[in-house]
Design brief:
The chain has about 230 residues and is α+β, with helices and mostly antiparallel strands. About 20% of the residues lie in helices and about 20% in strands. The termini are far apart. It binds heme C.
Length: about 230
Amino acid sequence: MPASMLGPHNYVAVAVLVLAACQAHTSAVSPLAGCTVPRIAAEFERMPATQRPADVSPSVSVLPTPVIDDAETIAAGDCIRPLLLAVAETSGDPRLKGSGDWRRFSTQFFRSEHGRYLEVAGNPLAAEYMQSEDGPTLPVGAVVTKRSFQAMQSGVMVPGPQFVIEKMPSGYDERVGDWKFTLISDAGVIVGDTRGRDGDKVEFCVECHKSAWRQRFLFFVPPDYRAKN
Ligand code: HEC
């Protein structure tokens, strides 16, 4: 099925399939509410109903999202990772097949400045990703993926977008070291590929990554969360 035919209902189906993996943290809030952070959920519950913020999707909200600590992030990340992998599978992007087995370059999910929790992993050709900051250039076919989840006001964790880059042959896009950028929505829909289908929708990736030209157009995992291997 083409990715363009996949919609939120597919996402619900995916969520239901993997809920079993998250049962330890099951909440009754919604069928997608597989993973919650108990501390945030309890704070939300204690708040008088009239003072509670709307529990809308973090992707459309301008509300500051709850901050969870490292231990909570590890637990939430382990809970929601199967769902993120299922969302990647739903996208039909062949490069992400089996990406659950890829080496993780981050020791755990970490909070981005935009309030998303991120994990970076790569295929075998991207093995030198960590060293490539000031070492070797990654080979053609190297794929690095950044998975994300976000915290609802109620403490429920939901998938965020997934960001994928692939090293392409020389000449593909000289602006950014021949990296191709792909955005996969939180529902598993491929939004666009730079220099490919719906490339205009992901041009913003290039605009920002261009600024990292001193480090081969990559930003890397923050030092505190870099895997040692
Ligand atoms: C405003 C700047 C900005 C934009 C726009 C942006 N990124 Fe990034 N990207 C970053 C930063 C900063 C990091 C480092 C991790 C973090 O904090 O998010 C990063 C990391 C990554 C990584 C991990 C590899 C690495 O070390 O660079 C991937 C993959 C990635 N981005 C893909 C994308 C894709 C795909 C898009 C467009 C859909 C995109 N990025 C748009 C700033 C940006």
